[in-house]
Amino acid sequence: MPFYYCPQCGSKLQPGFRFCPSCGEKLPCSALLELPESPHTEGSAEPDPDPDPDPVLKLSSQVQAQSITDSSGDPSSSSSISSSALIRSSIKSPLRYAVRKSCPRLSTPPKPAAIKDQNVVRSPRKRKVSLETKEEEVQTTALCQSPQTPPSGKVKRTKRASAMEPVQEGLELCDQSGKKWTLGKLLSQTDMELMYEVKQAGVRSSSNDMKHIMRLGAKDGQLFNEQNVLQRAAKPAAVEKWMKTHRLNFLGIPSSVGFGLHETYRFLIFPDMGCTLQSVLDTPTASLSEREVLKLALRLLDALEYIHENEYAHADIHAGNVYIRTEGDSQNNLHDPNQSGFKAAHSTETALLAVTEKLHAARSAKLSSVLILLHLSAAFDTVNHKTLLSTLRSLGICGTAWEWFASYLDGRSYQVFLSGFGHTFRFCPGGNHVEYREGGRTPHQGNLNFISVDSHKGAGPSRRSDLQSLGFCLLFWLTNTLPWSSITQPGSAISAQKERYMNDIPELMKHCFKKKKVSGALQSYLSQVMSLYYTEKPNYLELKLGLNEALKQFGGSLNEPLAFR
């Protein structure tokens, strides 16, 4: 029985096949496979008197001889010969395809990968066949190309996830309620998210209260999960009710004022939440004392308790998801008509213009001018206010100027928001806590330094997971180190270190504090949360009482702003 070869992968074929059983490609020039068979049919037991080790060459010679015989004495013999050459060239030597094939045979062992170097040394037989078919291959590439195969040299590549591309500033986006928002400057950009300053189109704002931020991400990415969580568990009415029943003057749960879609992006709009804690810690001179870390811990515990009571675990607590906003200046109505700072439509440029104009006016009136420049660099919110006022008085600033500073600083406070609900997990749907099951989620999701061991193992995060993550954050914010913070290996190595130190809290504290005095309040907190069971409900009141008692010993309270050293 004669065999033929697939022009795509070189596998043996039988007459009548329209598709290759090895690579699945449709066979080109299928009519050629139905040429008259040799006198010995498939059922004949008589052997071929002249066996040919290369059936394709045999078939090619038969076709060529047949075409030449038919064209003798015919005026159109040249065209017949040309057609014969094209048909003959469509069946190529299996020796050539043994080198160039792209799909493995099913009936034979795999052969070495293709060698594309044109200078490779070949055997005489291979060189001869290659030379005979080289010119014919060029002529018939287009003729024998399968419609399902991409053109030679063009290989289909898997599409990679494109990075977030900034949107043009000044563009107007419409949310689900029909409100239009105008994009301002780009505040931050990551691989997963863009953040813009926005304002509602057609609405004039005269204070920072009207400033909003817009976060853009992939349409079906983490913002989609965050939108669902905020709509279900963070409605303003529910937050207000919680604050009243728990007698809180503030709860750091952000409230989305709008959401929608823009091309391939999903966006959420929030009131201005200030800057991230990470951006503050990234400044070279910024650091947190134990007193300030305790303030952050108490504010974040309030937010986590609310989220947990609504059946969700945050699952990605770190400084990049903690926002800090200053309150006080606009509420106290302390904006001077001539000031440029902290006012909409004013900037350093307007301040310089105003000062220059006043100096020219004084010079024209032959008056002397004294200009005092104070480089406070946000000292209002990073230095203890009593210390700042006493320092200003010692420098000779007194009277009305000193009273203005004192009035400005009065009532100023920090608001701490917990944001970034992209990895949030509903651990207690309908009041039924999920069972612990490793591998139920993608392992190592979130910031590897701070996620819980549950998240490392792919188990659904629970209440204990968030409290353990918060403990890692507090320890890092205070000491700027963790035993696994320098590990560059995969998440499993970090998880192993966390498991080791979770069972030995004193050793963990010793490693982070080194020769410094260990925080007793933080050690007590870590000991409590590391011993929680997966489904156990934490005693939030007891945790907060211990931290609040330590804060009082430092002479601090939640009513005063944070102070960065």
UniProtKB/TrEMBL annotation:
Ranges for domain Protein kinase: 181-551
For bias type Low complexity, the affected ranges are 67-85
| Protein's UniProt name | Protein kinase domain-containing protein
The top of its lineage is:
Eukaryota, Metazoa, Chordata, Craniata, Vertebrata
The record's region (Disordered) falls at 35-85, 119-159
Recall the GO molecular function terms of this protein's record: ATP binding; protein kinase activity
